[in-house]
């Protein structure tokens, strides 16, 4: 790997800053670009540890009933901690992954990754810190699914995906259902209630005129 490429990697992942140039010359260390919609299925055994340099990867699980639940997304400077756990534990992948846009990955052979984990404290701390943070976020997601009203979760998603200057969203009811771990019929019913209350306008694959102030107030007051 040349110096420019090494700099590109360390800009995204400062945890590699202490890795000497000579170590990057390993023939199986590569940077690869992958097309959207590429998937990695549950149970996969990894030959490489992947670090996201650009793009976006959705990590999800599939329930016994076939329903998808999005756990989290990984973007530039991030890693899938479930993948890292699978590599370090030498077990199959406990989730599935899908590229949502063209994505560039640094690929480290598993033996190199494990060696560097032992050798470089910054990398080790980065991986373990990400594991802890993701554990907290996934625990919060499970609590939301179990205890938070679906209307509140929809409102939170709409607020996260819009701004005061851009109060519309291109998304299907099915996509929201996958994101929130429920079924399309539940999402459609709730959104129709929102529309009837005058909080938004529904179109085909689109939600417009979202009254963010109303949704924020109702979330604050817990009025669902």
What would you note in describing this structure?
This protein has 224 residues and is of the alpha+beta class. The protein is built from eight helices and nine strands. A hairpin with a 2-residue loop joins strand 8 (201-203) and strand 9. The model has no long low-confidence stretch (mean pLDDT 95).
How many runs of DSSP E, i.e. beta strands? 9
Q: Helix coverage percent of residues? A: 40-55%
Per CATH, the architecture of the largest domain is: Sandwich
- Going by CATH, the homologous superfamily of the largest domain would be Jelly Rolls
Features:
8 helices; Jelly Rolls; 224 residues; four-stranded antiparallel beta sheet; 9 strands; Arc Repressor Mutant, subunit A
How would you summarize what this structure contains?
This protein has 224 residues and is α+β, with helices and mostly antiparallel strands. Helix content is 44%, strand content 21%.
Secondary-structure map:
Elements: H1 3-12, E1 30-34, E2 39-40, E3 48-54, E4 56-62, E5 68-75, H2 81-89, E6 96-99, E7 103-109, H3 110-119, H4 121-147, H5 150-161, H6 173-180, H7 184-196, E8 201-203, E9 206-208, H8 212-221
Antiparallel strand pairs: 1-7, 2-6, 3-7, 4-5, 4-6, 8-9
């Amino acid at each position: 790997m040349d110096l420019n490429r090494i700099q590109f990697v360390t800009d995204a992942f400062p945890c590699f800053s202490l890795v000497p140039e000579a170590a990057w010359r390993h023939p199986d260390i590569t940077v690869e670009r992958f097309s959207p919609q590429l998937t990695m299925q549950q149970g996969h055994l990894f030959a490489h540890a992947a670090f996201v340099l650009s793009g976006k990867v959705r990590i999800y699980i599939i329930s016994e009933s076939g329903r998808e639940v999005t756990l989290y997304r990984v973007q530039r400077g991030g890693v899938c901690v479930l993948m890292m756990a699978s590599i370090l534990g030498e077990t199959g992948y406990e989730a599935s992954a899908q590229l949502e846009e063209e994505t560039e990955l640094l690929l480290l052979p598993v033996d190199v990754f494990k060696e560097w984990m032992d050798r470089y404290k910054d990398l080790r701390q980065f991986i373990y810190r990400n594991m802890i943070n993701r554990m907290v976020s996934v625990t919060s997601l499970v609590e939301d699914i179990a205890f938070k009203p679906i209307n509140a979760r929809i409102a939170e998603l709409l607020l996260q995906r819009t701004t005061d200057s851009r109060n519309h969203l291109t998304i299907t009811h099915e996509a929201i259902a996958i994101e929130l771990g429920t079924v399309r019929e539940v999402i459609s019913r709730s959104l129709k209630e929102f529309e009837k209350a005058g909080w938004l306008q529904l179109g085909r694959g689109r939600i417009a005129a979202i009254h963010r102030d109303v949704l924020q107030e109702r979330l604050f007051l817990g009025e669902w």
